[in-house]
Each structure stands twice: as structure tokens, then as C-alpha cells.
From TrEMBL:
Keywords: 4Fe-4S, Iron, Iron-sulfur, Isoprene biosynthesis, Metal-binding, Oxidoreductase
Pathway: Isoprenoid biosynthesis; isopentenyl diphosphate biosynthesis via DXP pathway; isopentenyl diphosphate from 1-deoxy-D-xylulose 5-phosphate: step 5/6
Physiological role: Converts 2C-methyl-D-erythritol 2,4-cyclodiphosphate (ME-2,4cPP) into 1-hydroxy-2-methyl-2-(E)-butenyl 4-diphosphate.
Protein name (database record): 4-hydroxy-3-methylbut-2-en-1-yl diphosphate synthase (flavodoxin)
Co-factor binding comment: Binds 1 [4Fe-4S] cluster.
Gene: ispG
Amino acid sequence: MGTEILNCTEQALPVGAQAKRSTRKVAVSWGQKVVHIGGSASVVVQSMTNTDTVDAIATAIQVKELAMAGSELVRITVNTPEAAREVPAIREQLDRMGIDVPLVGDFHYNGHKLLTQFPECAQALSKYRINPGNMGGGKRRDDNFAQMIEVACRYEKPVRIGVNWGSLDHELLARMMDQNQQRQHPWTPQAVMRDALVVSAVSNAERAEELGLAADAIILSCKVSHVQDLITVYKDLSARCTYPLHLGLTEAGMGSKGIVASTAALAVLLQQGIGDTIRISLTPEPGGDRSREVVVAQEILQTMGLRAFTPMVVACPGCGRTSSTVFQELASDIQTYLRDQMPVWKTRYPGVESMNVAVMGCVVNGPGESRHADIGISLPGTGELPSAPVYVDGERVVTLKGDTIAQEFQEIVENYVQRRYGSGANHS
């Protein structure tokens, strides 16, 4: 008989992410819609269009798609006079469609000119994204930056000062490289670059405050494309300021590589309480759906227990016991069905986003996982009896058989949602 090994501490080991770091709270608004970033607010999901902003209709349609997928802020490129001229039209089109998601203008090189020359654009945007590394050099850079901050102050718009290692201020980096050579033990060039990113972000935020921008209208980001660099930079940045931070692995890549890299970096930081908004910068497959990056961002937050967006489906990976594809098809269909219902369910059935559904493929873990879920089904594996027990709130309620298992199980899910989360139901 084995000897029990007990935890010697008096308390159980803690589970969950650390408390979010203390930051100021920034409000990004359009009309009655207000998205809070930082403070006690939940982590916000962002995305960005890849349409030509000059095409106002196509851009408005994609913004709507991203918003419907769950993006709480949507950034659009504003790079030319023609694009700036169309921003009010995009906003008007969204308003007509009943889409109140705030728009963020992404500016590089000529933002100071566009915001000044097109005041309607400056007003239609809810937030400006400024890259201090792409604003020229010397006095010209300072003047251009000041001009953008003055516009932000005039229209009371918050600003994200977004530093990127692909466009880092060359003059700042050169100075810091020279200073590094005076150290008794010089840092590596990569370490100096990481430090320069943080210095650039914080110093530009402080300069914005000197120019009159409120401290609670500033968000910072320092984006790099390597996981370990991103983790180090944001840990340093979070220790040096109390501004809210936007997280994202820039140029994350395509497909599984981009998803894995972004998840690996952001999960570490979020677990440490670092990060107030996130974006997953996926390169879409040719003809791919841009909203995929929104779904991935939501799934990261939900699987970490930080937020809930849509009912989650637990499904086994399959093995030699599950030669049938029935459970795979059912898991996929149910997951798609649940996400498709959420635009209606989130207002009709409050709390449904926290529901867990299990679709299992054989008797090994099927009944156990199904009991742990709010509602679950254990489909027959190879050689098992052709029956599928269904569990609701831990209790076996029915056993399905025949060719209509999928349809019957979906009906059970629908009835469960209505009964548990509908009007008058106990949502506890």
C-alpha cells in the first residue's frame, strides 16, 4: 500500500492568473458606446481591417464582421488624404447598420497632416494610434508628434503610443547604443534594443502629458515579433509605468504558427496580470476570414479563465477506439452552432457564454467528462454498444440511438439554454 504524500502547507495551491496590474482607466467611446481599457476593466479584444480604407463600403462591411465576431475596438488604416476623407463615411455607414464599435485610426509618417487637414476624420475616430518611430527625426519629429497630440486634446481622443522594433526611433537607439559602450559590461545589442523600446514608449507618453494630453487618455504598446523578447519587454514596461498596455506579437505569421506564437507570448503575460487589450496579428490564408484573429483572441482569454465569450466545447482528440468520425463531426457542428447563436443569445440568455458542452468519442473518458460539463454526450466508440448517453448538470437524462443523434442532441442543448438561461431562470 502506497504512502500518501501531502502538501505540507496549510493552504491549497492557488489557481488562476495573478491580479491585473494597477493602471489608469482609459475610456474609448462612440456615442453611447464606451469601452474601458485598464483599471478594473476586463481585457479588451481588438482587431484591424485589411481592406483599402478608400473603399468605404468594403471597409465598413469588414468592420461589421469583426465587431459581430466580438472585436470591441477595430483599427483602420489612415495613410492617405483619400483614406482620411472616407473615414466619416465609414463611420456613418456603420451607424446606419447599428454597429457602434469604436474606430481606431492607424497613423504612420503623415498622421499630423491628415488629422489637421481632415477634421471630420479626426472627429469620426474614437482613438488614434501613433508610432513615434515613423514621424521623422529631430525637431521635425517633435513638431509632428506635438501636432498629433494637440489634435487629440482638441477632440478629446485617447491615444495609443505604439512603438515597434521594426520602426524604432533610430536616433534614440543610436544614443543608447553609444551609452551602452560606456558600461563596464556592455549589454548585447538585442538587450539595448529592448530597453530602447521601453524608453521610447514611456518618454513619448510623458511628452504627450507635457503637451496637455490627460494621463488617462494614453495607452502604450511595444511590439516585437519574437516570443521571449515580447515577454521581457512587457515585464519591463509594466514595471516602469501605470499606463494601460496593449499586447500583441507583431508579424505573428500564418495559421498554427501565428496562433501558437501569439498564445505562448500573451498567455505568460496575462497570467502575470500584464495586459489590458490584446490583438492577435494573424496573416490570413488567401481568401481567409479576417475575423479568425478575433476568435483566437477570445479563445485565449476564455481558456485562461479571464473572460467568457461563447459556450466552450470539450472534445477528445480521438484514438483507435474512435474510428468513426461521428463525434468529430458533432463536436464541430455544435461548436459552430454555439458561436453562430451568440449574437442573439448574449442578450437573450445572460450567462450562457460560460456554459460548457462535452462531446466525447468513447466510454473511457466520455461519461466522466460529460458529467463534469453542463451538458455532455458520450458517443459510442469502436465495438461499443450503439448508444449515446446524455448528461445534464451531472445527471444522465437520456440515451440516444439511431441516425438522428446529432439533431436530437442539438435540440437538447437548445432546450437546456432556454430553460437555464432564459427569462426568469436562476442564472447562478
